[in-house]
Target: 2,3-bisphosphoglycerate-dependent phosphoglycerate mutase
Amino acid sequence: MERLLVLVRHGQSEWNLKNLFTGWKDPGLTDQGVAEAHKAGEQLRDLKLNFDLAFTSVLSRAQKTLGIILEELDQIGLETLKDQALNERDYGDLTGMNKDEAREKFGEEQVHIWRRSYDIPPPGGESLKMTAERVLPYYKAEILPRVLSGKRTIVAAHGNSLRSLIMELEGLSPEEILKRELGTGTPIIYRLDEDGKVISVQDLAA
Model:
């Protein structure tokens, strides 16, 4: 029995383009982001992959990316579960701020700590550790059991919610996952064994 899990970060958003901290705000996709989502769908179609179930966040950039992918796969209407547990990391007081302006206001070192430390959150926001503490219980309760039952599953979400999943799947340390860059609109294909351990991983960005 195949146990297939595909993770994909949403395509480029309007705030990605403007270099803004986005978090739980809900900007749409750019034209490039739409194109990235179509390409992701085409890549999966070329591999003859289709799905039994989809998961996404409550944010429209992830939902739109998923919708375009499913359109390319001729799977519009696929059962899709949406939950804020899969939302992007909440950047708190940094939300909406240009990253260069944040460095000017708070200092390069402080902003780097907020962005790249595992357990130090920005003011009013979440660290990656806090993000993982909501993502991983949801994964273990809702996503993994369905994958293990043989449901081919795609998750369209965000850079940091997906980092939380990748850290779990690949057994990475906090230091290792913080160095992991996830391209927008790029599928990562995992095949799991009966215990949920990764048998193989294929990053379509490679």
Summary: Strands lie at 4-9, 53-56, 80-82, 153-157, 187-192, 198-203. The domain at 4-90+127-203 is CATH 3.40.50.1240 (Rossmann fold). The longest strand covers residues 4-9. The chain has a mean pLDDT of 96.
